[in-house]
Design a protein that fits this description.
six-stranded mixed sheet; alpha/beta; 34% helix; 6 helices; two-stranded antiparallel sheet
């Protein structure tokens, strides 16, 4: 069992060597914004570093070996988005014009993960892609402000809120820019407590 000590660090007080990392899949869509991507993955890396434990395992998914960002950076893929995956959470990170996304295989894969009980989320324009997959009907959600009006018109069953992030049952969504920092803080806080989450956010 892992606990926070008086210095707000996680400690294993059970003596057990068994520990299962929380597996987070990242699906970066070509043209994703580097800022939103970094604000998603860096808190997880910081949590691992500060706890001296692999609390989170991050797996990158893409149909191609590399995914270009909105700038010059390329993200290397770890796995292909196919079949059932052993994930606790899958986050779709998108920027640019997510309404132009037309990869039917990816949309079908997202629906498959949903049937397998994987928690699914969208970062920035990623929420649009979840809506395109039919995964946000009747769900509270948010999205990059630039896409909110169009998304509401195209998918009126999505309950769009103008907030930094929204958690609704097995869906998590956040806006663009630095909004993923707030989402990750909330996620880490729900799993490891507010004290440790503040430590990560101050890192």
């Amino acid at each position: 069992m892992l606990e926070l000590d008086r210095n707000l660090r996680i400690q294993d007080v059970s003596g057990s060597t068994e520990f299962s990392s929380f597996r987070v899949g990242i699906l970066p869509v070509p043209g994703f914004a580097l800022m939103s991507y970094a604000c998603t993955v860096e808190p997880l890396r910081a949590a691992n570093l500060l706890s001296d434990s692999k609390l989170y395992e991050v797996i990158h998914f893409s149909s191609d070996a590399q995914v270009p960002s909105s700038g010059a950076a390329l993200i290397e893929s770890t796995c292909r988005p196919r079949g059932v995956q052993d994930l606790d959470l899958l986050l779709v990170v998108a920027g640019g014009d997510p309404f132009a996304f037309d990869d039917a295989d990816i949309l079908e894969w997202l629906r498959l993960l949903d049937t397998q009980g994987v928690r699914i989320g969208g970062v920035s324009g990623g929420s649009v892609i979840l809506a395109m997959a039919g995964l946000m009907d009747g769900r509270r959600m948010t999205v990059h402000w630039e896409h909110a009006a169009a998304l509401s018109e195209i998918h009126p069953d999505c309950l769009i809120e103008r907030r930094l992030y929204v958690m609704d049952r097995d869906r998590v969504t956040c806006g663009g820019g630095t909004a993923p920092l707030d989402l990750m803080h909330a996620l880490i806080s729900s799993q490891w407590g507010g004290g440790f989450a503040r430590l990560v956010s101050d890192w």
